[in-house]
Amino acid sequence: MLSYEFKRGSVMTMAKVTFNDDLCKGCGLCVNACPKKILELDKNRLNNKGYHPAACTDLDQCIGCAFCATTCPDLVITVER
Ligand code: SF4
Ligand code: SF4
Fold this sequence. Notes:
Layout: E1 16-19, H1 29-33, E2 39-41, E3 54-56, H2 67-71, E4 77-80
Antiparallel strand pairs: 1-4, 2-3
Bound molecules: iron/sulfur cluster (2 copies).
One iron/sulfur cluster binds next to helix 1.
């Protein structure tokens, strides 16, 4: 699980991006969907299915758009704003 809180602009905006790693099949759809290009498959980790799970590489750049969550076919990602 990965959680994150951030500030956006002059208004304090709280968002939390959570990955249920063991549901991820490493398909990469979320990587392509992210407009900030801050998601990638983590080549340093394997989940319990044997896949490299998706992860965020630069949490400061996340805009909380939830494109990643809506694109994922396996409901791995949750974005809370
Ligand atoms: S919420 Fe948007 S910006 Fe943040 S990781 Fe997902 S697709 Fe990228
Ligand atoms: S989080 Fe979902 S869309 Fe992203 S690689 Fe894993 S299964 Fe695919």
